[in-house]
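Q: For a teaching handout, I want to show students what a protein-ligand complex looks like in token form. Below are the inputs, and the small molecule is adenosine-5'-diphosphate. Please produce the holo structure.
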Amino acid sequence: MLVLDNRKRILMMNQAAKNWLLDDPSGPIPEALELLGSTEFLGAFEASQHTEDIVRRESKIYRRGEEKTVHISSQKILSPPRVILIVHDISRTVKLESMRQEFVANVSHELKTPVTSILGFVETLLDEDDGKAPQRAKFLGIIYKQSERLRNIIEDLLTLSRLEQEGNSVRLEPGNPIQVVSRALEACSDKADKKGTQVQFQSSFDGTLAMNAPLLEQAIINLVENGIKYGNPGGKVEVVLERQTDSLVISVHDDGPGIPQRELEAVFQRFYRLDKARSRAQGGTGLGLSIVKHIARVHRGTVKAQSSLGRGSVFTLTIPFVQPEDEVEIGLSS
Ligand code: ADP
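A: Here is the structure, written as tokens, with adenosine-5'-diphosphate included.
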């Protein structure tokens, strides 16, 4: 912890900060924040000058030849004028998280080939089935269905891994969201027809959005498919596009059974399912909404769920028009 005055003079450092940031932890503390040689600390200090909220940042800093990931929280106090910086070394957590991501990606990749092969052979056996051994056809059918489930889980895990690992470097380009929604609805039309679900689309927006079109389409497909899967037969799913001041709001409404209030956040967790048996029966993996959440994040946006039990659910994706990098550029050039 560091306490500074409003002219960046260091008034106090706790022992952990001294041990971590100073060459001689028992010596005198440097007078000014600049002397610690961290642009990240200076950035957090400056940002705090403009707000009374806590400024939170994650950044990489170099200490004694080692790269560390730190979480910096910074807050201004008005009287006396002070800024408090709290720095957490989160290098270990970040490393473990990246090992976990890599592990999931590798395992999923390894599992993909054998499952594809099992599916292929079972499909051939089913095609050649002459109906003389009904048990055999039944069991092959079960093996086929379960292998398909495995394949879906692997595909979803691979999508999640890619989003986690490449999330920040995904390219966003101006595109027309109406076209994206139309393509998504086209992809869901078979499932909707089978269940007798009426799918509608309404848009009061006609413009472009910085997006990754295939990913955004995937997110909308996941939400609409859920509306169909968990909705009642003959029900209704509606996609609505609306402009908010600085973002586009894409909402997917259904008139299904809804989701209890206490579960509205949990449904976005990996493998979380309200009703496991029902989700499985519908071919669900429990990963669809976490993929949507990651896709929202890639677009610097958010997704949230609202619901009224017995009356339906609304999933809302909010995607900003102006991406943070653009803002920085505008800020620098003006
Ligand atoms: P799944 O593959 O099981 O559909 P998701 O991550 O897409 O996984 O959804 C997680 C859980 O949230 C689902 O298993 C279901 O219980 C619940 N859920 C998602 N969408 C809806 C919806 N539109 N209506 C009711 N429940 C839903």
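A: Two things your students might notice: Residues 222, 226-227, 230, 254, 256-257, 259, 267, 272-275, 279, 284-289, 313 surround adenosine-5'-diphosphate (CB under 6 Å). The chain is about 45% helix and 25% strand.
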